[in-house]
Design goal:
By secondary structure, the chain is α/β, with parallel strands linked by helices. It is built from 28 helices and 14 strands. The longest helix has 37 residues, at 522-558. The radius of gyration is 32 Å and the shape is globular. Residues 1-11, 90-100, 572-598, 670-678, 684-699 and 715-731 have low confidence and may be disordered.
């Protein structure tokens, strides 16, 4: 028994992840379907979609209206004075620091755990009710009570190996078989007994204990364990002595030895975000807090956070930290009962805060999609940030599953009205689905191990009290069932990233986990980026092969050679090398021209920049731009992946596509390029990526005039073939 605990204390349950990931990635390699921004069909769809929008612009009486802002409406700013200076990579490729750096002061305080019993009788009774099968309904008076009950259950599950070994050591279940099916509540009452060092309660507490234990149906459990208290205490002491454990937590696996939940429960700082759907601006929020007796500090204030003080966060908008005199009373205040303040651990706000800035960062407009809803409060926070962002048209969230109605009720109760929740899994939609055609950015939040979070109780409470999640977070070893669950999680992560990056309209993906496991983080992202880029290159090379095959058939027909002899699998086609020389470079004497590479070489084809994905640096969103997110232990892993060259669906795109289609005259394609597929890019054509046209103004009259010409030419009967009419209707 002691040897088992010794090896468990050295165990790393995350060591199995790489092997399972390798198995899952092999399955994913079979995926071949991918759609690209350079696909002619997709570009035509976007062209006709923009054309329809431009028609509405032309029909409008507002001469200043542009394609860019026809569907826009003014959104209120919660704090107009706080506009973080974030330059786009096109404007400032060498860095974003534009002023003298300031030091950002932390809003955290040091927490010391007190010796002695930590759990009160009401908390123990509430935990006993929750662990009963079926559970007894608990009517928590406030969120603080709920957090305490689940914090106790977390510790019980964390020490279940120690409790089980002690019970087996004294043959408890052999003597009391009636409790075998109520094992979790036996763990609870034994842990509570250990917490008070196997001592009896004070006489003034005995009446309260009898009343609460009777109500929660654990009186018999407590009595029978009290009879075995001496032998149980001796058993636990022997375990510690045999392995030299100074603390009971040293008997646990490495990932469970941290007292993070107890520290979070004892932490006096309350963190959350002000709800802009109900509190319209910062002045109103400051007024409410001041009336409650708090002194409010700005994010630049160097004052240390004290009791009855609040401080706005320097990184995450809307987030504020407070130290109330009494946390329990604070949770009963109007601030929380009327949902003006949503309590949330700061670790769950970094990802949404960065995601909310990326549309401005990349200067994109369109819809945003979140792939999974792990924490409804975190999703609501992102919706609150989009409340003031004009570039975001719609915010879609998938993966609510069976909790869809519950999550919709929650969003409605706190006033969130700019979000569309779906029960369907994001990965369940086929690639041909037209559901996401206007989505330009994806916040990929698949399930993960949650091994990096400092306060798992915040996650549990935000999910309405998910006991199954607590059991997963406190696993001490990986069983066959655990391996299967890990495989499913890794598969979901792979599919989420792959399907996010396989759609042509998606320009960037922000991937987030709350994990310390490299397999779920950098290894996952790097693998999928390499896979997607490889599939894109294969698609271009296959297109090039098909183009050359069709050309060969055309040449054969012109020379009266049977087409079958020049088919794709023809030995004649394979064996006969191309000897036709390439034409000389225009303007250069043929004798002086350098030899051009053979176009028949498939290795010369590379992926166009608009199709290729690259990993980018996550932008610094701190108000002082001093890399606060990197300096702090955030509990979040964030990776930003984007197209090497972004596709902006604006008037400039519309004009360029019209030119390519020959609407203004001769198509811009040269006759010498006709032998190449439209989506193929050759290595000799590679140059440095052209800088984005950051000076483009959608209100510019020249662009507007050109766009109007496109519409006027397209609506001419001679310019609209029947197929075009059909496509326009479909778009």
């Amino acid at each position: 028994m002691s040897n088992q605990l010794f090896f468990l204390s050295l165990a790393d349950i995350f060591s199995v992840y790489p092997a399972i990931f390798k198995e899952q990635s092999k399955k994913l390699k079979k995926t071949k379907q991918i759609y690209l921004p350079s696909d002619e069909e997709w570009q035509d769809k976007m062209y006709y979609m923009l054309l329809e929008i431009q028609r509405h612009v032309n029909d409008s009486s507002d001469e200043t209206l542009s394609l860019h802002d026809i569907n826009k409406k003014e959104k209120p700013l919660f704090d107009p004075l706080r506009i973080t200076k974030i330059l786009s990579p096109g404007v400032s490729p060498n860095g974003r620091r534009s002023r003298i750096l300031k030091y950002c002061h932390s809003t955290t305080v040091k927490v010391k755990l007190k010796a002695g019993a930590r759990w009160t009788l009401p908390t123990i009774a509430n935990a006993a009710k929750l662990l009963r099968k079926p559970p007894i309904l608990v009517d928590f008076q406030n969120e603080h009570e709920m957090r305490l009950a689940f914090s106790l259950i977390y510790d019980v599950f964390r020490y279940k190996v120690v409790m089980s070994n002690a019970l087996n050591d004294v043959s408890f279940f052999e003597q009391h078989k009636e409790y075998k099916n109520d094992e979790q509540r036996i763990w609870l009452m034994l842990f509570e007994l250990y917490d008070r060092q196997f001592k009896g309660r004070n006489s003034e507490e005995k009446d309260l204990q009898a009343s609460l234990y009777k109500e929660s149906e654990v009186t018999d459990h407590a009595d029978v364990l009290w009879q075995h208290r001496i032998r149980l205490a001796a058993s636990i002491s022997r375990m510690r002595i045999r392995v030299g454990a100074l603390k009971l937590s040293q008997l646990l696996p490495i990932h469970l030895q941290n007292e993070k939940v107890a520290i979070a429960a004892a932490n006096p700082v309350v963190t959350g975000w002000i709800n802009p759907f109900l509190v319209k601006n910062k002045e109103e929020a400051d007024k409410i807090l001041t009336e409650m007796g708090f002194t409010v500090h700005g994010p630049d204030d160097e004052e240390q956070l004290l009791v009855q003080h609040c401080k706005w966060d320097n990184i995450c908008p809307l987030v504020i930290s407070c130290i109330p005199k009494d946390r329990s009373e604070f949770t009963k205040s109007v601030l929380m009962t009327k949902h003006y303040f949503i309590m949330q651990d700061k670790n769950f706000t970094f990802g949404p805060a960065i995601m909310s800035k990326l549309m401005d960062y990349f200067e994109l407009d369109g819809d945003i999609l979140q792939t999974h809803i792990g924490s409804p409060r975190s999703t609501a926070y992102l919706a609150a940030l989009f409340y003031s962002i004009n570039r975001v048209n719609n915010f879609y969230v998938y993966g609510a599953g069976a909790n869809l109605k519950e999550y919709r009720r929650y969003m409605e109760s706190i006033g969130v009205n700019n979000i569309r929740l779906f029960g369907d899994a994001f990965t369940s939609f086929p690639m041909e689905s037209n559901r996401f055609r206007t989505v330009v950015g994806i916040f990929a939040t698949p399930p993960n191990s949650f091994s990096a979070i400092s306060d798992p109780i915040d996650l549990i409470c935000s999910r309405g009290g998910d006991l199954s999640m607590l059991e997963v977070l406190t696993e001490s070893e990986v069983s066959d069932e655990g391996r299967q669950r890990v495989a499913m999680i890794l598969e979901e992560q792979l599919l989420t990233l792959t399907m996010s990056m396989s759609r042509p309209q998606v320009q960037f993906v922000l991937y987030q986990t709350h994990s310390i496991v490299g397999t779920e983080n950098e290894d996952m992202v790097q693998h999928v980026v390499e896979l997607i880029n490889k599939l894109a290159l294969e698609k271009h090379r296959n297109a090039y092969k098909e183009q050359k095959r069709l050309e060969a058939i055309a040449e054969a027909e012109a020379a009266n050679i049977p087409a079958a002899a020049m088919s794709k699998d023809s030995p004649r086609k394979k064996d006969k090398p191309s000897t036709q020389p390439e034409p000389p470079v225009p303007g250069t004497p043929s004798s002086m021209a350098p030899p051009l590479p053979r176009l028949d070489s498939i290795d010369l084809i590379v992926t166009p920049d608009i199709d290729e994905f690259v990993q980018d640096t996550v932008p610094d969103i701190c108000i002082n731009q001093d890399n606060c997110i990197k300096q702090q232990t955030t509990g979040s892993y964030l990776s930003l992946v984007r197209r090497k060259t972004l596709t902006h669906l604006n008037e400039k795109y519309l004009i360029r596509r019209a030119e390519q289609r020959g609407l203004f005259g001769k198509p811009e394609k040269d006759s010498k390029d006709k032998s190449r597929p439209k989506t193929v890019k050759l290595q000799e054509q590679q140059t440095e990526p052209a800088p984005q046209d950051m000076g483009y103004d959608p209100r510019n009259s020249a662009h507007r005039s050109s766009a109007q010409q496109i519409v006027s030419k397209q609506i001419s009967p001679k310019n609209i073939p029947l197929t075009v009419k059909h496509r326009t209707k479909g778009c």
